[in-house]
Amino acid sequence: MDVRVDDYLTMLAAGEAAHQRWLRKCGLHTLARAWAVERGALDDMGKALG
């Protein structure tokens, strides 16, 4: 799949915020889930920086 770099970086940057918002909207937000999302976002940031 051919994806522009700037589009890919935008997706990685928006991923955590979008996931946290979805958890809150669906009534699924807990501290444990928020932590898990944050940990996953660290992996995304590693991909963006690597």
Characterize the structure shown.
With 50 residues, the chain is mainly alpha-helical. 80% of the residues lie in helices and 0% in strands. It has two helices and no strands. Helix 1 packs antiparallel against helix 2. The longest helix has 21 residues. The two termini are 19 Å apart.
Write the layout of secondary structure elements.
Blueprint: H1 5-25, H2 31-49
Summary of the model, kept short:
The protein is mostly helical and 50 residues long. Helices cover 80% and strands 0% of the residues.
Average pLDDT over all residues: 86
Number of strands: 0
Low-confidence region ranges? none
**Main beta sheet strand tally, sense and closure:** none
The proportion of strand residues reads under 5%
How large is the count of helical segments? 2
Shape: elongated
If you compute it from the alpha carbons, what radius of gyration comes out, rounded to the nearest whole angstrom?
A: 12 Å
Helix content: over 70%
SSE ordering: HH
Keywords:
50 residues; mainly alpha; 2 helices
